[in-house]
Amino acid sequence: MTNRASGEQPAANSLWLLTGLVILGLAGWCPGLLGPAWGGTLMMEAEVLEGSGAMAMPGAAPDPIRYAIVHHHRAQDQARLSTWLRTRSGSLVTFFTKDGVSHQAVLKRLKHCFGRGLLVYSDPVDLTEKDIVRLGLLVEETKP
User: Fold this and answer.
1) Location of each CATH 2.40.10.190 domain in the chain
2) 21-56 pLDDT, tens per residue?
3) Which run of H or E residues covers position 86?
4) What CATH code is assigned to 39-139?
5) What is the distance, to the nearest Å, from the Cα of residue 106 to the centroid of all Cα atoms in its chain?
6) Residues of the chain whose pLDDT is less than 70?
7) Residues near 45 by beta carbon (within 8 Å), at least 6 away in sequence
8) Core-most of 11, 13, 55, 70, by most CB within 10 Å?
9) How many C-beta atoms lie closer than 10 Å to residue 127's C-beta?
């Protein structure tokens, strides 16, 4: 049925369109909500337990390196971070500091520290205890 005055379709069609746009938006902005089978980037916040200043490594890259030991910030992310660390340890990740700037790092699982990761990076950013960073963790699409 159409609206006689404007010729518009009923509100139900608009609702379906809006629902589809919301689902696509969530998939684009938060692929982690759809689970690892989706592929893409899993976004979550992590808390810094310990951080280091710049360390020069003899014989290594000319830029000093830094590290931070991190774990999940929110309880609901504990299992997802732990699973990601077990399956993707040593992978390249992106992290965002509180000023919104992105940085590249490698995130390595700490085998004897359940759910903890070692974030190794070279950007001149000093992360300290209790800082919150947003992690962008790559996940692979699983084949059916």
Assistant:
1) 39-139
2) 344 444 444 444 444 444 689 999 999 999 999 998
3) helix 78-88
4) 2.40.10.190
5) 13
6) 1-39, 60-61, 141-144
7) 72, 73, 74, 77, 132, 133, 134, 135
8) 70
9) 24
